[in-house]
Design brief:
Elements (H helix, E strand, L loop, with lengths): L1 H17 L5 H33 L2 H12 L1 H12 L4 H18 L3 H19 L6 H41 L1 H17 L4 H8 L3 H21 L1 H15 L5 H6 L5 H18 L18 H16 L7 H28 L13
């Protein structure tokens, strides 16, 4: 028993020395949030530049956007490595790992990147600076391990994630009212939690009606918190939450979970309105489904989808009703509904003065 305890102690000491922390929060929250930033700096920016280039006829923007989009796998993996505090040689080697995982994972590549980049990063950290030829050993081990694991598990991981996304989108087509509520509420809550809704939507390839419901939920949380907290946070809070993130309210939610009720109720209404009344679809990049009004990426994603459909011949033109639906789901309904629900919650004492105040 003493021998086993000694070995266990040595392993713990080694992991601590290497900065390897086996943590669900680190992998599922910190790494995923960083991954979403990698997605934003590659696929999202590339898509926005492509859209602008197409609409303005500036071909060089399409070229730049194309380069950015192609780097989504490496960008995600390097971002994950950064969150895991990888040494430089491990961090830079993850670019190849991300490329392999994303490419071999197919439609569900982002989930494969998340899992495989974490594995490769921790293996790379374990061997980092353990030999006198670190410049060779660390990149070789990190890349070999990452690409090898990609070849083994990326295709089934990608297929599983894609299948789950397909089931959600199929179910939304079959039961738009019920699924509109579920998708909108769940994705909207995930956006406010310290988890990346954008990464999850991208992993599942959530587009179509389900993507529209996800957008509705995200907008309900961002615009909702921006509006109901206006008396406490004024214009700065309106911008930081409405165009930034509702995650800023997480500390206040922990102290008083009832402040979340107006945004959740608003998303429960806008979700089915999106799927049943407006039939609003997100046919741009799936990652935009989980972005809401953050930098207006969600609405831009819907617009990108319209452009793609027109180019493919499946949509004749962008109509006034299209714009009306997008504005109502993204801004107007979340603002009005959350304001009404917020007033009710304040009236019955569930939300008190200062409960929504953001810390400076």
């Amino acid at each position: 028993m003493g021998s086993v305890g000694a070995k266990s102690g040595k392993i713990r000491a080694f992991l601590a020395r290497k900065g390897i922390v086996i943590s669900g929060r680190l992998y599922a929250i910190d790494a995923m949030s960083a991954m979403a930033q990698g997605l934003f700096c590659s696929l999202l920016i590339g898509t926005i530049l492509n859209t602008i280039g197409t609409q303005t006829g500036l071909a060089f923007l399409n070229d730049i956007g194309g380069f950015a989009t192609k780097m989504s796998g490496p960008a995600m993996a390097v971002a994950i490595g950064y969150a895991l505090k990888c040494p430089p040689l491990v961090l830079f080697s993850l670019a190849a790992v991300g490329q392999s995982a994303n490419e071999l994972g197919g439609a569900g590549g982002p989930l494969a990147v998340l899992i495989i980049a974490i594995i490769a990063a921790e293996i790379g950290k374990a061997v980092s600076k353990e030999t006198k030829v670190d410049i060779l050993v660390t990149p070789l081990v990190t890349i070999f391990a990452g690409v090898g694991v990609s070849a083994l598990i990326a295709p089934p991981i990608g297929a599983a994630a894609s299948s789950i996304g397909q089931v959600i989108m199929w179910a939304t087509e079959q039961q738009p009212f019920i699924m509109g509520i579920l998708v909108s509420v769940i994705v909207g809550m995930v956006l406010t939690l310290p988890i990346s809704s954008a990464a999850i939507c991208h992993m599942l390839g959530l587009t179509g009606l389900a993507g529209g419901a996800a957008l509705a939920g995200c907008c309900a949380n961002m615009v909702g918190f921006a509006v109901i907290s206006f008396r406490e946070n004024r214009w700065g809070g309106l911008v930081s939450q409405g165009l930034g993130t509702s995650m800023l309210q997480m500390g206040n939610i922990v102290r008083n979970p009832k402040i979340w009720i107006p945004a959740i109720l608003a998303s429960a209404v806008t979700g089915p309105v999106s799927t049943v009344v407006f039939r609003l679809e997100m046919n741009g990049p799936a990652v935009a489904s989980g972005m809401g009004t953050c930098g207006l990426v969600g609405p831009i994603g819907v617009y990108t989808g319209w452009i793609n459909e027109i180019a493919a011949g499946t949509k004749a033109a962008i109509t006034a009703f299209d714009w009306f639906a997008l504005i109502m789901i993204s801004i107007v309904l979340p603002a009005v509904l959350s304001w009404i629900f917020g007033l009710i919650c304040r009236k019955i004492g569930w939300i008190k003065e200062g409960d929504l105040k953001l810390e400076n």
